[in-house]
Design brief:
270 residues, 30% strand, alpha+beta, 29% helix
Length: 270
């Protein structure tokens, strides 16, 4: 029996790099929300493993055991055929591969945090699949209480920003964490104002790697109704928050017309 799974885009509203362990893993403190747009997967049990990639971003995605989807299925002791519809740009700072792997583990009813963490630092929070605070090397996931859904526009300029290079370019590895208690905010404007007091510590080194990110952020900031613009994860995808879905949709349409070379998607974060 074929099972369908959804792998939403993961958006880091904040990303504080708070330290680095002796084994090289970075310590993070990040607020994460998930979009209502993402990849889709279909799992059909069988005697042999196989992975088919379709969708607008299928090109370049491995179809063998090096793919996180394959590895996640194997870690759950599952075998069969998987079809992955790639609607999210890969290597884009929105957790595409991690979210895909987490969707596999959820579909296979696997909820072992250690197993998820062994596959990747983002996978535990992606398994949660809802707004959360992620700390440590990714193993500490706490549900974010009281925040509403947010209207957003995602933009990726189509450039690669390898995560290891971004971390390498980060000059200081110890920055302040977020407050111990995240305030309970009820409006997009209040959330944006609070987020402006927080950071993505990887944004500046990513901009040095790919200056086009600065242009994306400036363009998003200048959109009518934009409350805040920031880069997600290690980039190059950036987001802007809006008060209403209509404002986000209008902005996305304007951006698609002005910059058809960019990947642009209006969405709801929750």
């Amino acid at each position: 029996m074929t099972v369908e799974a959804f792998a939403p885009a993961k958006i880091n509203l904040t990303l504080h790099v708070t330290g680095q362990r002796v084994d090289g893993y970075h310590l993070l403190d990040s607020l994460v929300m998930f979009a209502d747009f993402g990849d889709r997967l279909w799992l059909t049990p069988g005697a042999q493993m196989g992975l088919e990639i379709t969708g607008p971003f299928a090109l370049g995605v491995p179809t063998d055991a090096s793919n996180l989807v394959w590895r996640a299925a194997r870690s759950a002791r599952w075998c069969g055929q998987i079809r992955l519809e790639k609607n999210l740009p890969h290597g884009a700072g929105i957790g595409g591969g991690s979210s895909d792997a987490a969707a596999i583990l959820r579909a296979l009813k696997t909820d072992d945090t250690d197993q998820a963490l062994a596959l990747g630092a983002d996978i535990p929070v992606c398994m949660a699949g809802h707004s959360a605070r992620m700390q440590g090397i990714g193993e500490q996931v706490t549900a974010l209480q009281g925040w509403p859904s947010l209207n957003a526009v995602l933009v990726n300029p189509g450039v690669a920003v390898p995560t290891p290079q971004v971390f390498k370019a980060l000059k200081a590895k110890t920055h302040p964490a977020m407050p111990a208690t995240i305030p309970q905010l009820t409006t997009a404007a209040d959330i944006a104002a609070w987020l402006a007091t927080q950071r993505n510590d990887l944004q500046t080194p990513a901009q040095l790697q790919q200056p086009v990110i600065s242009g994306v952020l400036a363009t998003l900031s200048n959109q009518q109704g934009a409350l805040i613009a920031r880069m997600s994860g290690s980039g190059a995808t950036c987001f802007a928050l809006f008060d209403t879905a209509a404002a986000a949709a209008a902005s996305a349409q304007n951006l698609k017309s002005a910059h058809p070379e960019w990947w642009t998607q209006a969405c709801t974060l929750s």
